Amino acid sequence: MSAGEPALAASRADAGVGGVVALRGVSKDYGATPALAPVSLDVAPGAFVSLLGPSGCGKSTLLRIVADLVEPSAGSVTVAGRPAREARERRDYGMVFQAATLFDWRTIRRNVELPLEVMGWRAAERRARAQRMLELVDLADVADLRPPQLSGGMQQRVAIARALAFEPALLLMDEPFGALDELTRERMQDGLLAIRARTGTTVLFVTHSIPEAVFLSSSVVVMSARPGRVLAEIPVDLPEPRTEDTREDPRFFQLVTEVRETLRRGVRP
Amino acid sequence: MTTPAATPAAVAGAAPAPGAGLVRRSAGAAAPLALGLGVLVVWEVAVRALGIRPILLPPPSAIAAAVVQDLPRLAGATWVTGRSALLGFAIGAGGGFLAGLAASRWRPLREAVVPVGVVLGSLPIVATAPIFNLWFGALSIWSKVAVVALVVFFPVLVNTVAGLASAPASSQELLRSYAAPGRTVLTALQIPSALPFVFGALRVAAALSVIAAVVAEFFGGFRDSAGFFIKTLMANADYTGAWATVVALSAFGLALFGAVALAERVAMPWRRDDRGVRT
Ligand SMILES: Nc1ncnc2c1ncn2[C@@H]1O[C@H](COP(=O)(O)OP(=O)(O)OP(=O)(O)O)[C@@H](O)[C@H]1O
Ligand SMILES: [Mg+2]
Question: Could you give the CA distance from residue A195 to residue A135 in angstroms, rounded to a whole number?
Fold first, then answer.
């Protein structure tokens, strides 16, 4: 194993780009069980980085560490040039959790408004923004229903709309499209890329779908089985903007294969 | 023939037709009504057929006649008792909820409050009523109110504390990711999560409060109160009259319970969106 040592991941930061997310030797043990091996990772401004790895390898844990929802056992984390905690307090990121986590006592619209309410937006502005976000995820027609009345995939889209609502400079997304059918999934992917093209948002994205990771990302970080470490960071040199043609591009298939083989190496070292 | 046009707006889980809720609600009331009627009929028939003496068990028809005959006096007595119950319920419930909020903010209090609350909440009324009579005077409404408030306070307190802590960790994380201040976490997450717990306690407390008020009156109270009535009617062997008083009190208790159930529906509209009949 020569290609894909963790050192490779750090190379970009060494090149002088200030990472929006910078992890240095970050690890996490839950009690005596290691969940995440020391990981170093940089996410450049405007980058779309996907994390790919076997179930239980610590992807959600890594995202939670970036979000300052979990304390790392070792290592340092900076987000937008600040300690993770400060970044959270400054609301520098928006997060889509692996579970939708909607509040049953709020209508769909008011769920999307929740972060805006916490951040003290005025009612009219909240409402307008929520409406726009719901249209974006094709759910404007259910705005006045409540979460239990929606399917799992619809709930997940509400959670996406909610995370996008305040247009954070950094999006942390944990399998946001996991519960969606293939076509809706592709529409959501296109929607996400469109938002990113408009706002320049940096994205750290967890997925189990190799084609999804390749299609969306500027680079794909492949992790080993638990405790997860970075096996390789594979830059995706597909032309921008990504369109339907991208999915047919021979280079797309090459990259999918490359990622798949790297993943295999992590399962059987 | 009107075929319903295909409605594209028929989204998943859209609210049922307006009529459906009403039908379901009246169906929900039908079962207990039928059961109640059945019990009354069996009771009446059994008392007559077996020739049970009215001292042991008067027939429902006799009780009903006594209620009708004595209605103004019964209504007055029920109100005297009921207003102690209402006041005690309001004070106990309000106090229990506020104390629960305070306890949930302050950890040592929260940990102490549940065991202490369970013990104090199960103090028998026969012990508390004479004490409060001593403190507030047997002929003061406040001695009855205090007995009721004590019975209501602790279940509401304990359930409020449990309810405020019941919000799932994932929801707390979400608010943490917004750096939401504690006050926002309380109002946006913890209190809505606690409401089902609080209303569960209030339903039980509503019934308890009427019982507590009557029992308190057994230990001395107004001469026009239901508790005093029952005591004297029993002493005079007017068992039908005593039963009639109990019926009047039950009607009041039921009304209080109904008011709590109504408040619950108003306070938690989301709990009836997807569930038809609430239990
Ligand atoms: N709060 C916790 N306490 C103890 N162990 C935990 C906790 N959270 C996660 N773990 C463990 O840490 C490991 C990594 O979990 P994590 O959720 O980060 O995995 P993941 O890569 O997101 O998996 P998946 O793809 O299935 O979502 C798992 O083995 C899990 O059991
Ligand atoms: Mg996960």
Answer: 13
